[in-house]
Write a structure and sequence with these properties.
Rossmann fold, 12 strands, 6-stranded parallel β-sheet, about 350 residues, globular, 6-stranded mixed β-sheet, alpha/beta, BMP_lipoprotein
């Protein structure tokens, strides 16, 4: 999905350079891998941080030298092309674009570097012999979040906040609403998107998420699920200060240091195994058998799911039983989760 919070890099990192990017020199023969971050950059406590965790794991376990590149504010495809080109020229393999926004750039750059594997997360539109599409069944994890929200809600009103109204985030909405309604047909789901493309601030600005969540709280929502990258942290803050539940996304946000002050209100998080998808692609390249084509992570393989880190969540036996049953029914094919609202 699309998504350091303090500032988006506007200088060297926009071209793919970083403190870890050696280019050439004594480390030139070492295996090198790179990730180019989505809107919000590293430090978003969510999508980008999950990708970084996969790179860090590869550094620690595979003796791979990692490089990172941050997005620049208001950038276009040409900036992404420049960034990916720089990373590929530096000898990184694979080069991974974090988010569907990298699709046009990867399509162009992958053709120019046929011996380099390119990964793209959350997109299947760009294909090639050296392109790996790392995708997830977000709607399945979101369905479970809907079940949990319906069970945890006392008011019968819950909220969904999408960062930007694009097909990917509509999958989160569709699964969530279906899970809520299948669990409590009388429940009311408030839905709001923060921005419309080409404005992607809805993935980057916490104040937008905070204001949207406050609006839903004022309308009686007592559980709010935000699929909005860095902006989602604002929704979590608002819910916490109101004494209501929030549901995190992409990473287990209960355990994110930047959200420590609000962790007790984070009921659960819809997790996407972005970390392992990044690690697995890097490992495949190092092993000489690079992944290509669609690599899908779903509920059956724990590629998506619900986190249970919050002790309060673990104490809700009826909620957990309902979530577990829903998971089994999805995996067994008894429930088909919609991908559009």
């Amino acid at each position: 999905m699309g998504i350091a919070s303090a500032a988006l890099a506007l200088s060297a990192t926009a071209c793919g350079k970083s403190s870890n990017d050696s280019g050439s020199g004594s480390d030139s023969k070492a295996a090198k891998a790179a990730i180019a971050y989505d809107i919000g950059g590293r430090g978003d406590q969510s999508f980008n941080d999950a990708a970084y965790a996969g790179l860090k794991k590869a550094e620690d376990e595979l003796d791979v030298k990692g490089a990172e590149a941050e997005p620049s504010a208001g950038e276009g495809d040409a900036d992404k092309v420049q960034r990916l080109t720089s990373l590929a020229r530096a000898g990184n393999n694979p080069v991974i674009g974090v988010g569907f926004a990298y699709a046009p750039a990867i399509k162009k750059v992958a053709e120019q570097f046929p011996d380099t594997t390119f990964g793209i997360i959350d997109d299947t539109s760009v294909t090639g012999k050296n392109v790996a599409n790392l995708v997830f069944n977000e709607e399945q994890g979101s369905y479970l979040a809907g079940v949990a929200a319906a069970k945890a809600s006392k008011s019968g009103t819950v909220g969904f906040i999408g960062g930007v109204e694009v097909p990917l985030i509509k999958k989160f909405e569709a699964g969530y609403v279906q899970g809520v309604k299948d669990t409590n047909p009388k429940a009311k789901v408030l839905t709001q998107y923060l921005t419309q493309p080409p404005n992607f601030d809805g993935f980057a600005k916490p104040d937008l998420g905070k204001a949207a969540a406050q609006g839903q709280l004022d309308k009686g929502a007592d559980v709010i699920y935000a699929a909005a990258g860095l902006a989602g942290s604002g929704a979590i803050e608002a819910a916490s200060k109101a004494g209501k539940w929030s549901i995190g996304v992409d990473s287990d946000q209960y355990n994110q240091a930047g959200l420590k002050a609000y962790k007790d209100s984070i009921l659960t998080s819809v997790t996407k195994d972005v970390s392992d998808s990044v690690f697995n692609l890097i490992k495949s390249v190092k092993d000489g058998k690079p992944q290509t084509g669609e690599i899908r992570y779903g509920l059956a393989t724990d590629g998506v799911g619900l986190a249970d880190s919050n002790p309060k969540y673990k104490s809700m036996t009826d909620l957990i039983a309902a979530v577990d049953k829903a998971k089994k029914d999805i995996v067994d094919g008894k429930i088909t989760v919609k991908t559009t609202p």
